[in-house]
């Protein structure tokens, strides 16, 4: 039985293991998998009362300044080796917890700013995010035995990290990375999921920023035009209308 009062102690113990072995990666994968398991457990309807406890822990009690590099490294490895059956299942579980994984990653990155003596290369974090998107693009463009489930999960959960990550990563570059991600998806594949993913991108904080919108709006136009002009297959009109409606609703806001 898991009790809220023990959640902080459990998470502290996990991240202490990671921080105490910061020079090695011996336990990084084990800690990553344990963290995914805990987040997945909290996502269960029976444990929804843990969500506020987890949010409070991340914002007020979490203190692992180097966790962002280790968490992104393991995630990058899983995405890059998604064709391996055992890693495929681990990756799928991690994707379902991507929102909270990146809450930890971003908070760790924020904390690291407060310690000038941090020995990490300042560009290492940005490169790890670029590498992650590149791995996603490669994965979306190649066939895998478990590809359907993994690709669908990426499209579903990737937008959940946008608002957090844009606080520590250049928003315009993030918009470019998202545009390249959408463009990496082969035509006529995952049409509804892709348009749904774009809806969530439009609903994010990025689309309210003019420089980011200069990148994202042409992408939306191209994707909608491509869908509606394609006479070789029946367009998903419902998904197209939903995306167009989301764009127009956002553009109609007074703060945009």
TrEMBL record:
Specify the superkingdom.
Eukaryota
| One Pfam family per UniProt | TPR_DOCK
Q: Where are the transmembrane segments?
A: none
UniProt domain Dedicator of cytokinesis TPR repeats region: residue ranges: 5-256
**InterPro entries linked to this entry:** ARM-type_fold, DOCK, TPR_DOCK
Q: What is this protein called?
A: Dedicator of cytokinesis protein 5
Q: Which organism is it from?
A: Xenotaenia resolanae
Gene that specifies this protein: DOCK5_3
């Amino acid at each position: 039985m898991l009790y809220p009062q023990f959640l902080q102690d459990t998470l502290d113990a996990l991240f202490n293991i990671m921080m105490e072995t910061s020079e090695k990666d011996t336990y990084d994968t084990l800690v990553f998998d344990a963290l995914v398991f805990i987040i997945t457990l909290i996502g269960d309807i029976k444990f929804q009362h843990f969500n506020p406890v987890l949010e409070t822990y991340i914002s007020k009690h979490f203190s692992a300044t180097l966790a962002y590099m280790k968490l992104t490294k393991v995630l990058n490895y899983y995405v890059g080796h998604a064709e391996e059956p055992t890693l495929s299942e681990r990756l799928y579980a991690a994707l379902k917890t991507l929102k909270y994984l990146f809450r930890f990653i971003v908070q760790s990155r924020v904390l690291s700013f407060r310690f000038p003596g941090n020995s990490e290369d300042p560009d290492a974090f940005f490169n790890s995010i670029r590498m992650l998107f590149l791995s996603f693009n490669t994965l979306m463009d190649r066939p895998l035995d478990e590809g359907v489930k993994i690709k669908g999960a990426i499209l579903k959960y990737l937008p959940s990290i946008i608002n957090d990550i844009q606080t520590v990563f250049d928003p315009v570059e993030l918009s470019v990375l998202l545009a390249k991600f959408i463009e990496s998806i082969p035509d006529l594949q995952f049409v509804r999921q892709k348009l749904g993913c774009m809806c969530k991108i439009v609903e994010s904080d990025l689309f309210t920023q003019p420089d980011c919108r200069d990148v994202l709006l042409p992408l939306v136009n191209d994707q909608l035009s491509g869908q509606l002009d394609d006479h070789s297959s029946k367009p998903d009109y419902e998904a197209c209308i939903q995306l167009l409606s989301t764009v127009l609703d956002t553009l109609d806001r007074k703060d945009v």
